[in-house]
Amino acid sequence: MSTHSTTSSNKAVGDHFRWARYSTKERVARSLGYLVVGVLLYWSLSTVDVFWPWVWDAPAQIGDMMFRMFPVSFVQLNPILFALVESINIAVLGTIVAVFMALPIAYLGAQTVTPSKLTLWLARFIIVATRSVDTLIWALVFVAIIGPGPVAGILAIAFRSIGFLSKLLAEAIEEIDWGPVEAMQAAGASRAHVITYAIVPQVVPSFWAITILRWDINIRESTVLGLVGAGGIGLIFQGAIDMFRWNTVSLVLIVIVLVVFAGELVTGVVRRKLM
Amino acid sequence: MSDSTVHYRWKRPHFIETPYIRYGLLALAAIYLIFALSTLRVNPQRIVEGIPRAINMFRGAVPPDFESRGGLIVRGFIESIQMTLIATAAGVALSVPIAFMAARNIAILPIYAVGRMIVVVARSLHPVVLGVLFVSAVGFGAFAGILTLIMYTLGFVGKLLAEAIEEIKYGQVEGVRATGAGFFATLAYAVFPQVLPRLIGLSIYQLDINLRASAIVGLVGAGGIGATLNTAFGRYDYATASAILLVMIGIILVAEGISGRLRGLTK
Amino acid sequence: MLQITDLVKSYNNGEPVLKGLNLATDERRLTAIIGSSGAGKSTLLRCINRLVTADSGRIELDGINILELHGKRLQDTRRQIGMIFQAYNLVDRLTVMENVLSGRLGYVGTLRGVLRRFPQSDIDRAYALLKRVGLSQYVNTRCDSLSGGERQRVGVARALMQNPRILLADEPTASLDPKTSERIMELISRITDELDLPVLINLHNVPQARDYADRIVGLRYGVIVFDGGPQDLTDDWLEKIYAGHEDDLKKQMKVAGEDGANE
Ligand SMILES: Nc1ncnc2c1ncn2[C@@H]1O[C@H](COP(=O)(O)OP(=O)(O)O)[C@@H](O)[C@H]1O
Ligand SMILES: [Mg+2]
Q: Could you report the per-residue pLDDT of A46-66, keeping only the tens digit for each?
């Protein structure tokens, strides 16, 4: 894309230069792309199950809702803060649980170090299954199994994170410099020694970066678990919505934005420290 | 060759050298963990009861039942895909002006503040939170879902595009400006072409992300397959639920593959 | 002591890279293996400590056929064979001391190794070796802050930590500038002499092979075409060893020439 000038077809036609931005092939591919996008959009817009009069009414409705959110009411500040702490705890504990489960799965899921084809496919299956199911759906499952509460939330966060962490960590393991591994093997080291001396030190920086990235995501995810009964601030949010307490809804939203923003600041600082 | 009378002591150096800080941090972490664990109201009895429940659920879920509610499942997925396409297109289109507003090197301070705020708020709120809000504002259904995904797109594409704009090369901007071009002409000819490849890459990636999100906003009533899944769960129809989950995993994997391919092509 | 018989090795069922090699070393001396790139020098060394698995033949160390070993017995034999690598193969993010001590991993138990609790004798030996290679001031320095020459000194110390019966070195100086390369060769040759240790060393640098080796083996497409003392290695022989790869040879001679000019 950045090579327009080299691929454009500037041919001399008689005394005039014809200038075109893209070569014919590129133009055809491009037009085809636009056509596909256009057709898909047309199909979606014309068949989607939307009641259009409501759409034209939407700005007024949304404006009305925002209007009702102010002034912000601080009556429920205490329970909101308690629920917020619970959300953060769920994110932290869920991430920790996930890390412990992800370590062996990442090892088995890394093509270069996994002991056998069977373990590789087992690990890959776990990775795909856990990371393709959203946290909220995991939460539904765990609430159904062990009942509502933060433990279900922790398990939901953990399960969704296992696949994410394992996948990225397995990739980090596959990318290590193989030389030290051979050096350890050549010295007669056992598998455990090869792991702790040649593999672990090389993936430690990626490990922290990946874990912190996921923790940051999990803070956000933990704010909605309460909507399905899995603990945290989502429960209060749902309650305020159900009772039309818009002045409290706005406080919950503000608190969520602040904590997510703070989480991003923390991860930014830690990441810079680690690099 | 080793000197047998002199013994050297060696201990692995610590990551944090000062013991004061090292143990202080460890203690803080331990205290936090104990506190966090103590707030969990673990009910062992409930967990024990959960084991047969889990077995029942699993029994219900295997084999998955694609047939009895096949029509609903297909309709749900089609709606999710429609929501994704519409919201990605609209969201990306809206992201462009907002990204320019949120780029410090383009926008004047008050506009920058507004742009930045929109991006931060849109990013901080989980799509499900946005979904609940839009469902209350405009009612149940796909429209609320589309609005949700548009906001979600704004937060993601808006932020990354703003960062791309902040990293542009200034030579080209000055070149166009030197021809006497005005502010918007400069944006269109000098800035936008520089970030266009990034925008296309981000849009394709966002398509993938929105598809995932479209599957869950339905859990709170904002249309798509999530609504079907929620109903199945509510009816304890785990065979249908597992069928939906399997199709969902399949579609997500395929979309991830296509999105990766397309992004590779546009590079 | 080391006896290689009819060694055959091919990769991915292709043309053999080693074609029935026979080689024996039992004297305590430095044997240089030369040959153009792709001749199979690295493959030979890597067969000896089983970093690659040979197709057929025998490699006996003190009468034990290495090719038949598995698991713990393979580990026990590997620890008797020290290896120095062209790319050093140190763990960058570990300290010099940890890298050197990792040479003892074949001797210590799993838990001790993992926890870095090495016996006092190992630590004493590591200090002595670091002193000998001139790195005692860097004990707790991380390896990624060392220069190439310093890294290879760590590599030498690590190999010697194993207390090996034989030392293998695969182009240990190929990544270094000529001066440093000379110093490392000097170190390897002196220290193995002090320890009475036989060395098999792949060299890309013919003059260095002539300077330091007691015996030179010329490898060409997986076959030994020359085996003799440095004084026997005439230019005729060199042409035979490097036939078809004259550029390779010229480059190597030239590097050495510039090196000489430096001194
Ligand atoms: N791991 C490997 N897989 C496939 N072929 C290899 C591998 N290692 C080496 N070879 C091939 O074996 C031949 C000999 O290589 P090598 O032993 O590295 O030679 P040298 O060290 O003398 O340069 C070369 O043709 C090389 O391409
Ligand atoms: Mg080689």
A: 888 777 777 788 888 888 888
**Alpha helices per DSSP H over chain C:** 41-48, 71-78, 96-101, 110-114, 120-132, 148-161, 178-195, 206-212, 235-242, 246-262
Whether residue C254 has pLDDT greater than 70: no
Residue B161's closest CA among B205, B113, B208, B212? B205
What length is written for chain B? 267
Query: CA-CA distance, A56 to B27, in Å (whole number)?
Result: 58
Segment 144-203 of chain A within 8 Å of chain C by CB? 177, 179-180, 182-190, 192-193, 196-198, 201-202
Beta bridge partners of C64: C61
Mean pLDDT of A163-188: 95
Which residues on chain B place their C-beta less than 8 Å from a C-beta of chain C? 1-4, 6-13
Q: Which residues pair with A13 in a beta bridge?
A: A16
Residues A242 and A236: their CA atoms lie apart, in Å, by 10
pLDDT at A25 over 50: yes
Within 8 A of C79 by CB-CB distance, chain A residues are 187-188
Smallest Cα distance from B85 to chain A, Å = 6
**Domain A79-274, CATH among 3.40.50.10780, 2.60.40.10, 3.40.50.300, 1.10.3720.10:** 1.10.3720.10
C-alpha–C-alpha distance, residues A128 and A112, integer Å: 19
The phi, psi pair for C216, rounded to 5°, reads -125, 130
Amino acid at B94: L
> Which part of chain B is CATH 1.10.3720.10?
66-265
* Chain A residues close to C113, C-beta within 8 Å: 189-190, 192-193, 196-197
B199-244 pLDDT, tens per residue? 888 888 898 899 989 989 998 888 888 889 988 888 888 899 999 9
Q: Comparing A205-209, A229-233, B174-178, C120-124, which segment has the lowest mean pLDDT?
A: B174-178
Instruction: For residue C78, give the nearest of A186, A192, A196 by CB distance.
Output: A186
What lines the ligand 1 site, CB under 6 Å?
C 11-12, 17, 35, 37-43
Return the ligand number nearest the Cα of C13. Answer: 1
Q: Which residue pairs, CB below 8 angstroms and at least 24 apart, start in A198-206?
A: A198/C91, A199/A113, A199/A173, A201/C91, A201/C92, A201/C93, A201/C94, A202/A176, A202/A177, A202/C91, A202/C92, A202/C93, A203/A169, A203/A172, A203/A173, A203/A176, A204/C93, A205/A274, A205/A275, A205/C93, A206/A168, A206/A169, A206/A172
- Give yes or no for a cis peptide into A71 (omega within 30° of 0): yes
Asked if C66 and C60 count as a contact pair (C-beta separation under 8 A), the reply is yes
- Maximum separation of any 2 CA atoms in chain B, in Å: 85
The overall longest dimension of chain A from CA atoms, in Å, is 81
Q: Are C162 and C106 in contact (CB under 8 A)?
A: yes
* Residues of chain B above pLDDT 90, percent: 31
Is residue B146 within 8 A of residue A44, CB to CB? The reply is no
What average pLDDT does chain B have? 86
Q: What is the pLDDT of residues A120-154, one digit of tens each?
A: 999 999 999 898 889 999 999 899 888 889 999 99
| Mean pLDDT over each residue of chain A, to the nearest integer | 87
The answer on pLDDT for B41 being more than 80 is no
Report the CATH number of the B66-265 domain: 1.10.3720.10
How far is it, in rounded angstroms, from Cα B145 to Cα B211? 11
Q: What percentage of chain C exceeds 70 in pLDDT? A: 95
ipTM: 0.90
B40/A260 touch (CB, cutoff 8 Å), yes or no: no
Q: Which of A136, A145, A257 sits opposite B54 (nearest CB)?
A: A145
Backbone φ and ψ for C214, nearest 5 degrees, come out as -90, -25
In C, which residues are within 8 Å of B13 by CB distance? Answer: 95, 140
Structure confidence at residue A22 as a pLDDT band (50, 70, 90): low
